[in-house]
Amino acid sequence: MTAVGHRIVHGGTLFTAPVRLDPAVLDRLEQLTPLAPLHQPHNLAPVRAIADLAPALPLVGCFDTAFHATQPHLAQAYSGCFQVNISGSRITWSIRDTSHSGGLLGGVSPLEMQKAQ
């Protein structure tokens, strides 16, 4: 084994691409737990466990929110795929799963997706 990839639900606006997971990054991801309290702790627990078992093994995090965070603001607000709640400087996403990125990138427009529902 040369590395381990981890799916992590929330990278906030800090992590919008895959990132090497080190103690500093994990601490920042822990701070995002209020944005996804049911998922974030369970996503980070295996990262810490593997880091303890194999400290030299590279760990990489990929974030469900990364795709949406890099979209234009109008696309971020499109409710057919997810909802955005902006409160002050806090942005939360309600995302069903990462399959939405495949649907949107596969040439299906948000309007076509809405008509299909």
Number of domains: 2
Number of helices: 6
**Beta-strand content:** 15-25%
| Low-pLDDT segments | 79-84, 95-110
Helix proportion range: 40-55%
Tally of extended strands? 5
The largest pleated sheet is described as:
3 strands, mixed
**Average pLDDT number:** 75
Order the strands across the largest sheet as they lie in space: 1-3-2
What order do the helices and strands follow? EEHHEHHEEHH
The radius of gyration is 15 Å
N-to-C CA distance: 42 Å
Structural class: alpha+beta
Silhouette: globular
Oligomer: single chain
Short structural description:
The protein has 117 residues and is α+β, with helices and mostly antiparallel strands. The chain is 40% helix and 21% strand.
Describe the overall structure.
This protein has 117 residues and is an alpha+beta fold. It folds into two domains: 4-65, no CATH class; 71-116, no CATH class. It is 40% helix and 21% strand. The protein has six helices and five strands; from the N terminus they run ββααβααββαα. The strands form two sheets. Strands 1-3-2 form a three-stranded mixed β-sheet. Strands 4-5 form a two-stranded antiparallel ribbon. Strand 4 (82-87) and strand 5 form a beta hairpin. The relative contact order is 0.18. The model is unreliable at 79-84 and 95-110 (pLDDT under 50).
List the helices and strands and how they pair.
Elements (H helix, E strand, L loop, with lengths): L3 E5 L10 E2 L2 H9 L8 H14 L5 E5 H6 L3 H4 L5 E6 L2 E6 L3 H7 L4 H7 L1
Parallel strand pairs: 1-3
Antiparallel strand pairs: 2-3, 4-5
